[in-house]
């Protein structure tokens, strides 16, 4: 197949929403013309020329009145699905993706961005600039499994309620090296503020990444990235779709594999139960408030 033919096939697929829908529909199995016209909401007269073009390019076969993908059509459509999904991810919020430094996402996961097709980018309200989104907090409260990556201490990083912590036995936290050194010092304010589940697994990441924070539970995933200028903005990408959660888990596991697990006294100091006097302020709430791990602020990023 020469370059002209390749270009023609690309044009055939990318320049017609109807043809793309037909291929994706036939991926589910053989269909008759009535089913195809019903899908497109078009007349038979309008659909038949599209079917003819797909047949001429060897993507679709017709047997009597039934249409099905050819072997070539199956291969092309299989590759078309992630491409269209990736395009959809970018088109949903092109400004967000254009401004972000994506180097903190490994190449193999950048090639799976179609798994984030259903997501929302949340910008904090001016009167709640330092508070995590309400949907984030509500979902976190209902989660039993917590995977969390953090690259710096946020000013509203307040404590978990102890009763809440004791119910969370499947938790893993990854902190960057400088962050971990600060929060593990008993003389630091961060040490007093930080409460973690007693059975949590702790890891330290000794590297540089544009990933600011990542939260993954069985209910949702939430992501913060630096922008291309190396600064932290206030936008949080969040999704509760199963594919997005799976993508978030893969990203978390990638960082866990290249991080060092913490044992001994350093881990014990962070995981031991700390008592917060009733009514003492921690972050922007009281000591019984949920961990505000997603407070957003505009600041120069520091590892």
Automatic annotation (TrEMBL):
InterPro entries: ArsR-like_HTH, FilR1_middle_dom, HTH_ArsR_DNA-bd_dom, Tscrpt_reg_HTH_AF0396-typ3, WH-like_DNA-bd_sf, WH_DNA-bd_sf. CDD domains: HTH_ARSR (cd00090). SUPFAM superfamilies: Winged helix' DNA-binding domain. Gene3D superfamilies: Winged helix-like DNA-binding domain superfamily/Winged helix DNA-binding domain (1.10.10.10). Residues 129-257 form the Methanogenesis regulatory protein FilR1 middle domain. This is Transcriptional regulator, ArsR family. GO terms for molecular function: DNA-binding transcription factor activity. Residues 17-61 form the HTH arsR-type domain. It comes from the Archaea. Pfam families: FilR1_middle, HTH_5.
